[in-house]
Design goal:
The complex is a heterodimer.
Chain A: H1 2-15, H2 17-60, H3 67-73, E1 75-78, E2 98-101, H4 128-154, H5 156-162, H6 167-199, H7 204-234, H8 238-267, H9 273-285, H10 288-305, H11 317-353, H12 359-371, H13 375-402, H14 415-420, H15 431-437, H16 439-459
Antiparallel strand pairs in A: 1-2
Chain B: H1 3-15, H2 17-72, H3 85-92, E1 95-98, E2 118-121, H4 126-130, H5 138-143, H6 148-164, H7 169-173, H8 176-184, H9 187-215, H10 221-257, H11 261-290, H12 296-312, H13 317-324, H14 338-374, H15 379-391, H16 395-422, H17 442-472, H18 474-479
Antiparallel strand pairs in B: 1-2
Classes of the chains: A mainly alpha, B mainly alpha.
Chain lengths: ~475, ~475
């Protein structure tokens, strides 16, 4: 019975010219978006690879110089594109691409690609994730809104019920047919990408992310489909169903993201760059604790070595001074940059919870998370770069400490020291961490699936003509 | 058309609950967006003022310190000495050049959240100074702001089309259309009146809110730049009117093409989706494929390589520089001076980077030219760009500001360069160049906005004429089915 219902519904969908037209439009848009995203990620990846290798070469090829000069020369860390950035570039165009790791300071990351992209790019971006998250739901609305309300409007629902068709099974048939249509569209594409990833020997983490992205899409679109069927079952006419569902779509994808983010910004304000720097500088200026530590350590060393002046020590006190200053500033940097990033992430969490009202918010947050193009990944990159900077400074300051001036000649380090400084290598956080960071989004989307399902289970058996 | 007909239409309109729902949604979103805009503008002005004050205080304190040190003596590191031209030009006199928000900045965020409204100028390398920016949340940048411009470009057309939906299909379905034709002769006038009244319902609240935001108590826009604000307000209102008139004309024309209310809803919703979402998206994809944006990563990589090369020649930089610029080689240039060395190595590095930065900028500008053509892909893009331009938050005003920043940076170097090279104590704190932003000529802004308005009104006239032509045969077309 169910199989026959599904077959009949699919036949009707196949005969519907509008469905073919919508699919053709979506297909063309998806092909263009995928091609553009793939091209961008390929270019970004090549640039990232070349720049990272170039930076390491330059670091190793430095002439003989004092280690602190090398510390000031520093190294640029470049942010790699996310593992699934071609699917969802997410926040990539708005996240800085590089950070300069040098002595004394944790620098703000630089250069958001969108600054060089021109204003049009901010108006109507098209990516595979946007097609799945914003345009496919529209297709579902247009196809599913008349599914039950249309039969009611035409009077065919009355005939079906009079013939003894179980309404619950009939609705299930409708739902399965629409789900089959969607699966028929998306599953081959998903498998194709999975196959490409396997052939290209993509890391297991990337494959796992793709698997999770598939589950996310199924959850989101499944919820949307059930919502459409529920609204269609409750509506007296196609017009009403269409109006309600188009309003849900417009609010969810268009109005809610901007409105919620304004509220999130109000709740967790981002400081202006000027305020941020003023506060940071004010805290960095307080060196009383550092000066006391340096005086203590100098006295200890002078006593331990039985000398009167720092220059007579068998170690270079400047190395200790530089490292102590670095360590003193760590806490200040951690506090200020930590607050900044915590603010971003708090806004992000709020956005995910507001998925209760607008599921697109939850979908886009989780999708960019799985693709490695969200704030969680950005913070992970920025933290990794800062940790690397600290290791770098420690190695270089240690070398200064161990090499005091000899006959007034400053110690000059060479390639052997540059080689000791580890290369900056970044790998994205694990899938588990990503999923736990986006738990609210997954919870909300599960709710969006279950709620209309429960509603439908209640409404479908009592369907009125 | 007599006034009784107009009164009748107004009465019908006021009885329609959809009108009140649309008005409610519009007013609520407008008030939300406008209040956000006003708060944002006030916060921005406060930060910019604080920034300018901090610059002034720092310079004043340096001036007094220099006098005090000269008169009373005292030990101070060369790297902190307010009598050292390099220290003053690099740190103590740093000036944040400010792009002042216009009187309409609260109406459209435009590109102002992506590009800072300030740039520091000092003796530090230009690239380093220009790289500084605001810390705005990346998510908010990606999603966009909830401003009045968003309400105008995205929400208002949707509401207007909602009011136009089912007209005149509903009259046909209820059998009123032939009666109207008999009573009122030509249906063109009737259709224009209906459409015009609905347009006014959406347009008037937007214009009122726009004017209120500018005239709000506490806003000193008029005092600061009365003519500029007034001009921008007129141009903004013209662009809003042109854009919404286009949607009204399009809605009226589409309404005459379809036969029933459901079709009408679908046709209007599809037109909105096509013009506001799909066409801009397609235009962007084609832009990305044909004019990929220049890569900053590649630029930084090339910059580092070029910098290394130039620095390697650093020890010879001063001698070489003086050979290239003999006018600078006065008797008092100290070739061993650290500050002079640093400045000249920096000059050498920037010279080496010039081809790179020029190539990058050219690629950026080529893309910007394409982007400006892309506006024509959809009236929504055209209006969005126009509204940002009128509010002074567009890419073009930012580019104009940047050009002034470059010019001032050159003037700064011309002022400090010889003084750093001379290495003499510096006491000319009161002669340091100061920056004043010069507004772009009003005619240039007006010309750009005229193009936007011409585009919108041109399309409005075209669709309006098409609608009137179809309206003449409405009873025949719709009634004889």
């Amino acid at each position: 019975m169910i199989a026959r219902l599904v077959a009949k519904e699919l036949l009707e969908l196949r005969r519907d010219g509008r469905v073919w037209m919508l699919l053709a439009i979506l297909g063309v848009l998806a092909a263009g978006a995928a091609l553009s995203a793939w091209q961008q990620v390929r270019t970004q990846h090549a640039a990232w690879h070349a720049a990272s290798a170039g930076e390491q070469e330059r670091w190793l090829a430095q002439d003989e110089k004092h280690p602190h000069s090398a510390a000031h020369y520093g190294v640029y860390a470049f942010r790699p594109p996310g593992p699934l950035a071609a699917f969802d570039p997410g926040l990539d165009p708005y996240l800085p691409v590089t950070v300069w790791m040098e002595a004394h300071r944790q620098n703000e990351a630089l250069y958001r690609p969108a600054q060089d992209a021109g204003s049009a790019v901010r108006f109507g971006r098209l990516t595979p994730a946007i097609i799945v998250g914003a345009l496919l739901p529209l297709l579902i609305v247009l196809v599913a809104a008349p599914a039950i309300s249309g039969e009611r409007e035409r009077g065919t629902l009355r005939q079906l019920l009079a013939q003894g068709v179980a309404p619950g099974r009939w609705v299930l048939g409708k739902g399965l047919a629409l789900a089959t249509l969607l699966a028929g569209l998306l599953l081959p594409l998903w498998l194709l990408v999975a196959a490409v990833l396997i052939v290209a020997s993509a890391p297991l983490d990337t494959l796992a992310r793709w698997l999770a992205a598939g589950a996310l899409v199924a959850l989101y679109l499944g919820g949307f489909l059930l919502t459409c069927l529920f609204v269609s079952a409750c509506s007296r006419s196609v017009r009403t169903a269409l109006l309600v569902l188009l309003s849900v779509w417009a609010v969810s994808t268009l109005i809610a993201p901007r409105a919620v983010l304004e509220w999130a910004q109000w709740r967790h304000p981002t400081p202006s760059s000027f305020e941020f720097r003023q506060a940071l500088q004010a805290d960095l200026r307080d060196r009383s604790e550092l000066d006391a530590r340096l005086a203590r350590r100098a006295a200890e060393l002078l006593e331990a070595h039985g000398v009167d002046r720092l220059e007579q020590l068998p170690v270079n006190f400047d190395g200790f001074r530089l490292q102590a200053a670095e360590e003193h500033d760590y806490a200040v940097f951690d506090a200020h940059f930590g607050r900044l990033h915590d603010g971003y992430l708090a806004q992000e969490r709020l956005l995910q919870w507001f998925g209760v009202l607008a599921p697109y918010l939850a979908f886009s947050a989780a999708s960019s998370g799985l693709s490695g193009t969200d704030l969680l990944h950005y913070r992970h990159f920025a933290d990794s770069a800062e940790q690397h900077r600290r290791v770098m400074q420690e190695v270089l300051n240690e070398a200064i400490y161990r090499n005091p001036e000899v006959d007034g000649q400053r110690y000059l380090a060479g390639p052997e020291l540059w080689a000791i400084v580890p290369k900056f290598e970044y790998s994205a956080p694990s899938l588990g961490r990503v999923i736990s960071g986006h738990a609210p989004a997954f919870a909300v989307l599960t709710g969006w699936l279950l709620l209309p399902l429960m509603g439908l289970l209640r409404v479908a058996p009592r369907l009125q003509p | 058309m007599n006034s009784a007909v107009v009164r009748g239409e107004v009465r019908l309109l006021l009885r329609d609950p959809a009108v009140w729902i649309v008005l409610l949604v519009l007013v609520v979103t407008l008030i939300g967006a406008a209040s956000q805009g006003v708060l944002r503008q006030h916060a921005e002005i406060a930060v910019l003022t604080e920034m300018a004050n901090a610059d002034a205080d720092r310079l004043e304190s340096a001036t007094w310190d220099a006098i005090r040190l000269e008169e009373q003596g005292g030990n101070v590191s060369r790297f902190r000495d307010p009598r050292n031209a390099d220290v003053v030009g690099r740190r103590l006199a740093v000036q944040h050049l400010i792009l002042p928000p216009t009187g309409l900045a609260a109406l459209a965020v435009g590109q102002s959240d992506l590009h800072p409204a300030w740039h520091p100028v000092s003796l530090e390398p230009r690239d380093q100074l220009l790289a500084e920016g605001e810390l705005n949340s990346p998510r908010q940048l990606a999603v966009g702001r909830f401003d009045v411009s968003f309400v105008v470009v995205f929400v208002a057309p949707l509401l207007l089309l909602g009011l136009l939906a089912g007209s005149p299909a509903r009259e046909r379905e209820s059998g009123m259309l032939p009666l109207l034709a008999v009573q009122r002769g030509q249906l063109g006038g009737w259709l224009a009146l209906r459409t015009g009244l609905r347009l006014l319902i959406v347009l008037l609240p937007i214009l009122v809110v726009g004017v209120m935001v500018v005239l709000l108590p506490g806003s000193d826009a008029f005092e600061a730049a009365a003519f500029d604000t007034l001009l921008r307000l007129v141009l903004w209102a013209g662009a809003v009117t042109g854009y919404l008139t286009f949607w009204a004309a399009l809605g009226a024309w589409l309404g005459t093409l379809v036969r029933d209310t459901a079709q009408s809803v679908l046709a209007l919703a599809s037109s909105w989706l096509l013009l506001v979402i799909l066409l801009p998206a397609i235009a962007n994809v084609s832009l990305e494929l044909s004019y990929p944006q220049p890569s900053r990563i590649e630029y930084v990589n090339a910059m580092r390589a070029a910098t290394d090369l130039a620095r390697a020649e650093g020890s010879e930089a001063l001698q070489q520089y003086l050979e290239d610029h003999p006018e600078m080689a006065g008797d008092d240039v100290d070739v061993d001076d650290f500050f002079a060395q640093r400045l000249l190595v920096q000059e050498r590095v920037e010279e080496a980077l010039l081809p790179l930065s020029t190539a990058f900028e050219q690629q950026r500008q080529a893309r910007a030219r394409q982007v400006s053509w892309l506006r024509w892909a959809s009236p929504a893009m055209l209006a969005s760009a126009g509204l940002a331009d009128a509010a002074g938050t567009s890419e073009s005003r930012q580019a104009d500001f940047l050009q002034q920043v470059h010019g001032f940076h050159d003037a700064w170097r011309d002022f400090f360069g010889p003084r750093v090279l001379a290495g003499r104590p510096f006491f000319e704190h009161d002669r340091i160049p100061t920056f004043e932003y010069s507004q772009e000529p009003p005619a240039r802004l007006a010309a750009r906005m005229a193009v936007v308005m011409l585009g919108c009104f041109g399309l409005s006239v075209a669709f309006g004429l098409l609608a009137l032509r179809r309206a003449r045969s409405l009873p025949k077309v719709m009634g004889n089915e």
